Amino acid sequence: MKIRIMLLAACALAGAAQGALASPDLAKAKNCMACHAVATKIVGPAYKDVAAKYAKDAGAAERLAQKIQKGSQGVWGPVPMPPNPQVSNDEAATLAKWILAQK
Fold first, then answer.
1. Which of 44, 49, 38, 52 is nearest to 68 (CA)?
2. Which of 36, 61, 31 is nearest to 48 (CA)?
3. Are 93 and 28 in contact (CB under 8 A)?
4. For residues 101 and 21, which has the higher predicted lDDT (pLDDT)?
5. Which domain holds residue 42?
């Protein structure tokens, strides 16, 4: 029984650590970093600027996840963000939470 509990705890810790590291890697894997960076504007806004804009918006993570998947236009200027249908719902939610945590 003790071994089972220890194994479950180890798996939970490994999953939490992987989740904490997965967002920057996920952003690279989904090609987000081609147009965005954490601290500087490239084609799209810097992630820290997105986080600052939506800091007091309780529903921002869900809306941002939808924008990641469906694209958006006119929020940050005339250049539209294309849709990313290859990003799953879970991946979009993970990315949105990570983006909103940037400072």
1. 44
2. 36
3. no
4. 101
5. 22-100
